[in-house]
Amino acid sequence: MDEIEKIRQKRMMELMQKIGDKDDQPVQNAVDHPIKVDASNFDEVLKKYGNVVVDFWAEWCMPCRMIAPIVEQLAKEYAGKVVFAKLNTDENPMIASRYGITGIPTLIFFKDGRPVDKVVGALPKAELKRWVERNI
Length: 136
Fold this sequence. Notes:
Elements: H1 2-18, E1 35-37, H2 42-48, E2 51-57, H3 62-77, E3 83-88, H4 93-98, E4 106-111, E5 114-120, H5 125-135
Parallel strand pairs: 1-3, 2-3
Antiparallel strand pairs: 2-4, 4-5
């Protein structure tokens, strides 16, 4: 039954998008986990969703690993309002360079495909929540 409901919701979201109901952005409702982005889908994700937080990280980065569970929690809490994405800077140096990433973790808040704010370093969940709230 769960699987059928997921399929039904997905089809409804696709239909809503086709009729141009962009204000509600129903597709975001389904995104309750960080999306892995890379050179092949980065720009597409930014265009598809109104509010996107991109976590620029690397496997070897301990502060990145520390905030990973926080990013997962925030993705669940803000599902429908903000989509969270993770971009591995070692695997995607051109995108990291495009946004001037010199330290990681860096989180950039994008609105309608444009960067509007960023934070650098591992911050506590409460501070990240305040940052997200300021930018919604």
